[in-house]
Prior knowledge:
By secondary structure, this protein is α/β, with parallel strands linked by helices. The chain has helices spanning 2-19, 21-24, 28-32, 35-38, 41-51, 68-76, 89-98, 127-132, 163-166, 185-188, and strands at 58-62, 81-85, 103-105, 113-119, 137-146, 153-155, 158-160, 171-174, 189-195. It has a single domain, classed as Vaccinia Virus protein VP39 (Rossmann fold, 3-Layer(aba) Sandwich).
Amino acid sequence: MLSAVRDHIFNKFSKQFWKYRNLFDKNWVNGYLSDEALNHPHRKMLLDTLEKYYPFETLLEIGCGPGPNLINIHRKWPEVALCGQDVSRTALESVRRNLPGKFEEIVAEPWLFDIVLTDAFLIYVSPKRFMDMSWRAIKALVMCEWHSDDGPFVDHGHFVHDYRKYFPTAKITKIPENVWAGGGWGEHGHIIEVDMRKK
């Protein structure tokens, strides 16, 4: 009961923070679109993971922010239809500006995509909420999140989950510390890959 209350409060706070971040941090979107952010080494790990499932026609990123992953995916596979969902209208407007005619915001249900992607989204919410969403991945679910076989718990103000509990067939790969060391990522960061064709 207490953990459910904690999760609810945490989820509500996180949603409001990201929804209204532009009110107290006018330039936060630009930080995610800098050369350093676009070329962060974990993004190469994501692209390498996605390449295993190529060719694919559609990809949805939940919690896409201003779209650094979507921009990189478009550069690599310009023919893929890219969709996203985010609580921040500022972030979604940024994606539209940077990928004119190549991006669609998803608000209707149900959703059906070849690939569903998350990157540092589930560190703010519970996997149950994520799994209750009406999306469906045809080929793969690819997540860059905080994992521990001892989860769930909160560390550095973020959720660390046990993804084996939710996705028993998942391939879970530790993000090396030389790829992402700061703020808990060196300890908890993983790429979680669920091949939906094997379920």
